[in-house]
Write a structure and sequence with these properties.
Elements (H helix, E strand, L loop, with lengths): L6 H8 L5 H8 L1 H11 L3 E5 L8 E6 L5 E6 L6 H11 L15 H12 L1 E2 L5 E2 L9 E5 L2 E5 L5 H15 L12 H12 L8 H15 L8 E3 L8 E3 L5 E3 L5 E3 L1 H9 L3 H6 L3 H15 L4 H21 L3 H13 L1
Antiparallel strand pairs: 1-2, 2-3, 3-6, 4-5, 7-9, 8-11, 9-10
Helix pairs in contact: 4-5, 7-8, 7-12, 8-12, 9-11, 9-12, 12-13
């Protein structure tokens, strides 16, 4: 079968800064997908469309007939980091890693994350031994068309929060996962070059909030976080009612992970005359439900909303940027 990348993936990668390795990955993606299928002795059913914005998702069956998903990720999206996080969670709260072709699989990558080597971002782990070098992950198949976002608002938030809580575990000792300070440091540098002067006050407030938050991290607050958690990342499954997919793992305080969930359905919030009040209640309720400090959650929500808004401005998604920055102004 043909493994052509869906238009959504091509557009999304085109919005990011040009990168020779990513361009080469996208050009060779049909070939890479075919090789990954053959290497694992899989039967490909179809490419998931519209699919994600950062990976090619192929619905497959294993040699034993088990339905699964083969996910191919560009090198800069840290596929080894995702593999290690899924292995560390071991199917608790997240899709289970099934990559039998890497018998060392989750265990070997968890060892790499635990200190055997640093993630290089080029599809390998430096100094940590061999891991799957094709940027592909084989995971259990969930119901990709059924996310918690399909539930009523109150129920969806409850289920999403419960799933997120299960993911917050201690990272492996001596891990090499990116930290919240490192990730937001890179983002802060990009935010400082905001293309819209009108957004500068919000950018300044977000950067100040980050500095204050990092200077006062509560003792013992470090956990392995999903990194990009939102309602659409929680899918219905058979093994458990709801499981998370698509992490971009990071280590830090839980309020950072929860912040992205606060702005879920942002378009509905902006359209509602009570959007400001709903947002503030959401911050309060999520903070109480997951036992994080309300002000720290508000601060990280502000930073992450402004960062996303500035990034949307930079790539020409003006409507998304307007929604995100208006939301950030409510905080």
């Amino acid at each position: 079968m043909a493994f052509e990348p869906p238009p959504r993936l091509v557009r999304a990668l085109g919005e990011t800064p040009r990168d020779t390795a990513t361009d080469d990955w996208l050009r060779r993606l049909p070939e890479l997908a075919q090789e990954a299928v053959e290497r694992r002795d899989l039967t490909a059913e179809r490419v998931q469309v519209p699919g994600g914005r950062s990976s090619l998702v192929v619905l497959v069956r294993t040699r034993e007939g088990t339905p699964a998903v083969l996910k191919l990720v560009p090198p800069r999206s840290r596929p080894d980091s995702e593999r290690a996080a899924l292995g560390h969670w071991g199917g608790l709260g997240a899709a289970r890693l099934l990559d039998g072709a890497d018998a060392a699989g989750a265990e070997g990558d968890a060892r790499a994350a635990a200190g055997g080597g640093a993630f290089t971002g080029d599809g390998s782990v430096s100094g940590g031994g061999s891991v799957a070098g094709d940027g592909a992950l084989l995971v259990e198949r969930l119901q990709r068309d059924v996310s918690v976002r399909s539930l009523p608002e109150a129920k969806s938030m409850l289920e999403a929060a419960g799933t997120l809580r299960r993911l917050w575990v201690a990272p492996p000792a001596g891990h090499r996962f990116e930290t919240v300070a490192e990730r937001t440091g890179r983002q802060a540098e990009a935010m400082a070059d905001c293309p819209d002067p009108d957004a500068e006050p919000l950018v300044a407030a977000a950067l100040a909030a980050r500095e204050e938050l990092l200077a006062s991290v509560p003792e013992g607050a470090e956990a392995l976080l999903h990194g990009t958690f939102r309602q659409s990342k929680v899918l219905a499954g058979e093994r458990m009612p709801w499981l998370a997919v698509g992490p971009d793992p990071v280590v830090g305080e839980c309020a950072f992970d929860l912040a992205r969930l606060v702005r879920d359905r942002v378009e509905d919030l902006i359209a509602s005359p009570s959007g400001v009040a709903v947002t503030r209640r959401r911050v309060k309720r999520l903070a109480e439900a997951l036992e994080v400090d309300q002000e720290r959650l508000r601060g990280w929500t502000l930073f992450r909303a402004v960062e996303s808004g500035v990034r949307a401005l930079r790539v020409g998604r003006s409507q998304d940027a307007e929604l995100l920055l208006e939301f950030a102004g409510w905080l």
